[in-house]
Amino acid sequence: MTIQEAQQVVDNWIKENGVRYFSELTNMAILTEEVGEVARIISRQYGEQSFKQSDTGKDLGDELADVLFVLICLANQTGINLTEALQKNLDKKTKRDSERHKQNPKLQ
Questions:
Q1: How far is CA 73 from the centre of its chain?
Q2: Are 42 and 35 in contact (CB under 8 A)?
Q3: Are 67 and 31 in contact (CB under 8 A)?
Q4: What would the pLDDT profile of 14-52 be if each residue is shown by its tens digit?
């Protein structure tokens, strides 16, 4: 699925199942919550924190998909074409960082 297709799939899902988009402010809060859930799994799986009983059954892929879903909702409701935005962002990063990272001894 392309990013453009994902934006259309999410829009269709909202129209068919979600009644309407939550407000942008509500979706921003939801996005923050979802990113927190990703952080919780990462800190336990790859960091020093130990898992709690309440962490049982949490799936990183599912949580990342939750983040992507809400991010796509925000893009759709604010008129952002994520394909174009990502390409523009990659072009910016390439111009700014193509040599910087190659010269970084911490990455060698």
A1: 11
A2: no
A3: yes
A4: 999 999 999 999 999 999 999 999 999 999 999 999 988
